[in-house]
Automatic annotation (TrEMBL):
Keywords associated with the record: Membrane, Transmembrane, Transmembrane helix
Family to which this protein belongs: Belongs to the major facilitator superfamily. Phosphate:H(+) symporter (TC 2.A.1.9) family.
Domain Nodulin-like positions: 11-256
Lipid bilayer topology: Multi-pass membrane protein
Keyword RNA-binding: no
Gene: LOC107003563
Protein name, as recorded: Protein NUCLEAR FUSION DEFECTIVE 4-like
Organism: Solanum pennellii (Tomato)
Keyword Transmembrane helix tagged: yes
Transmembrane segment boundaries: 12-34, 76-97, 148-166, 172-191, 203-223, 235-256, 329-356, 368-386, 407-426, 432-454, 523-541
Annotated Pfam families: NFD4_C (PF23262), Nodulin-like (PF06813)
């Protein structure tokens, strides 16, 4: 009973619960699968669909509300609000698409998808931020794994909806509505910040989990490719989904093993600690004096340092601390480093989101069947995963061994999607597969590195708010590039094709463009924007070069050592 209680309260079970919540928090990446259904059912043109996509990106990336809420409320409340938003937003979209309610106005649909997509920020803030604070010294690997499971969620959802509902994209929207909400509710009290010293096998556990996640990614890739060439029965889809779920739950056994090892170690240490029975006279006052002299000054000095650093969220705006120390919210938002990150994010994530959201229509314009388009989206999700975990683990290795700045890796991550954009602009046979690989991988790298860099440059005290603020440029970039550039140029090409057939816009329900020219000019522009973002990010590389050459995690190691001493002192006193 004692072990079960410790396991359910421990940080390893919390880590497993966070993986599952993250695996359900990437439903926004499936927009390319069901967007065609929304477009045909509700009679939207491409500009309107891209406007809907932009509000989806707006909701998915503007998480300031969830961040501020997490500063003043417990984690369980943040997860509860997120689950309710997810259920209500996507359920209303499903009701509209299945015509169970009257056709909503466009702004109603924009609101529905914005609310539904915004719920993933509450899941991110609740679980991801808590895990980073519980594993501060291994935040690169932790963030890579957490965001990696988000990247796999698209492929996982695809297998689940095929097993539960069959090949029906309308039912996919229903699955997106109830499953993520259910996951957050199940683990709502397991996600909380804990005070622990560093586990001796911590890095090993992360690598074991990495192997499990890679096996899951390769399994999903194999199943996705097989489903493209082989006609699966419903039983076959159920079998595939079952295998995926078994692998997905493997980290639970890792968590049980590590928590059991910690439980046995703690029990052994408590048994080996000698009883603090004092035989000298007088027993109590004199025996406690040496402990007071040794322990209390160190503890009290730590408290004084912490009290000195206790400042308000919006105070000392123009007295910025050193990089790596805890910035206040406005100190971070008004810094030059954050401004550079904002521009790089606008270019990189804005372009990548635009490419991902238009993937379905890109495949349609180039003559790919709907089943193959679903394959693009699933594979994009898997490449997205590899980008996320690689950026976390590889950047951690490069930083610890050779002091390579993470900001430099981010620069390379901005160059890759420019190549993918050019491949879409000048397509060849199978080019969409190659483009989805480059864009999906680089998107995963950029997103994970953004979160890691913000935590390293501005500290963890207000990380709940700052990492959400760091994404604000993404929906802005998505709106300008997706709606004002790609959407308008696509509609112009589609109108030209209508005019060549002697038709007008009012004579057709759906505005569709077919051919290589549909996305050529717009994706040349996206490639140029990506390259501009890479050039801007080089400024941040120069500014942070000396900082990354220093020991940036020293203060967290010192804090862990202080926690260990405090825990030993408490255990000895209790004994």
């Amino acid at each position: 009973y004692n072990f079960t209680l410790q396991f359910l309260r421990g940080r390893w079970f919390m880590m497993f619960a966070s993986y599952l919540i993250m695996a359900g928090a990437g439903a926004t990446y499936l927009f390319g699968v069901y967007s065609k259904t929304i477009k045909s059912t509700l009679g939207y043109d491409q500009t309107t669909l891209n406007l809907l996509s932009t509000f989806k990106d707006l909701g998915a990336n503007v998480g300031v509300l969830s961040g501020l809420l997490a500063e003043v409320t417990p984690t369980w409340f943040v997860l509860l609000i997120g689950s309710l938003m997810n259920l209500s937003g996507y359920l209303l979209i499903w009701l509209a698409v299945t015509k169970k309610i009257a056709k909503p106005k466009i702004w109603h649909m924009c609101l529905y998808i914005c609310v539904g997509a915004n719920s993933q920020n509450f899941a991110n803030t609740g679980s991801l931020v808590t895990c980073v604070k519980n594993f501060p010294h291994s935040r690169g690997m932790m963030l890579g794994l957490m965001k990696g499971f988000v990247g796999l969620s698209g492929a996982i959802f695809t297998q689940l909806y095929l097993a539960i509902y069959g090949n029906d994209s309308k039912s996919l929207i229903l699955l997106i509505a109830w499953l993520p909400a259910l996951l957050s509710l199940i683990f709502i009290f397991s996600i909380r910040e804990k005070k622990f010293s560093r586990h001796p096998n911590e890095v090993k556990v992360f690598y074991v989990t990495l192997v499990i996640s890679i096996v899951l990614a390769l399994l999903l890739m194999g199943i996705t490719i097989a489903q493209k060439y082989i006609e699966f029965s419903h039983i076959g889809y159920v079998a595939c989904a079952t295998i995926v779920c078994v692998v997905l739950f493997c980290p639970l056994f890792v968590a049980i093993r590590e928590e059991y090892a910690s439980w046995k170690l703690n029990k052994k240490e408590l048994e080996s600690v000698p009883s603090r029975v004092i035989v000298e006279e007088p027993p109590l006052p004199i025996s406690r004096a040496p402990v007071s002299e040794i322990e209390l000054p160190e503890y009290s000095s730590t408290v004084k340092v912490q009290e000195k650093k206790e400042v308000g969220c919006f105070s000392d705006i123009f007295k910025k601390p050193k990089r790596g120390e805890d910035y206040t919210i406005l100190q971070a938002l008004l810094s030059i480093d954050m401004l550079i990150l904002f521009v790089a994010t606008f270019c990189g994530l804005g372009c990548s989101l635009t490419s991902i959201d238009n993937l379905g229509q890109i495949g349609e314009s180039l003559g790919y069947p709907q089943h193959t388009i679903s394959t693009f989206v699933s594979l994009m999700s898997i490449w997205n995963y590899f980008g996320r975990v690689c950026s976390g683990f590889i950047s951690e290795k490069l930083l610890s061994k050779w002091k390579v700045p993470r900001t430099l890796i981010m620069t390379f991550a901005l160059i890759l999607p420019a190549i993918g954009d050019l491949i879409i602009a000048f397509p060849f046979s199978g080019s969409v597969y190659v483009a989805s690989l480059l864009i999906g991988f680089s998107f995963g790298v950029q997103l994970t590195l953004l979160f890691i860099i913000i935590s390293e440059l501005f500290g963890l005290k207000y990380y709940s708010t700052l990492f959400n603020c760091g994404q604000l440029a993404s929906p802005l970039g998505s709106y300008i590039l997706n709606v004002q550039v790609v959407g308008r140029l696509y509609d112009n090409e589609a109108l030209k094709q209508l005019q060549s057939k002697g038709l007008t816009r009012s004579m057709v329900k759906e505005l569709t463009c077919i051919g290589k020219q549909c996305y050529r000019n717009s994706f040349i522009i996206l490639a140029c924007v990506n390259l501009f973002g890479a050039i801007v990010s080089l400024i941040l590389v120069k500014r942070t070069m000396d900082y990354y050459k220093s020991d940036i995690y020293k203060r967290f190691r010192d804090q862990m050592e202080a926690n260990e001493k405090e825990m030993k002192m408490i255990s000895t006193t209790e004994k």
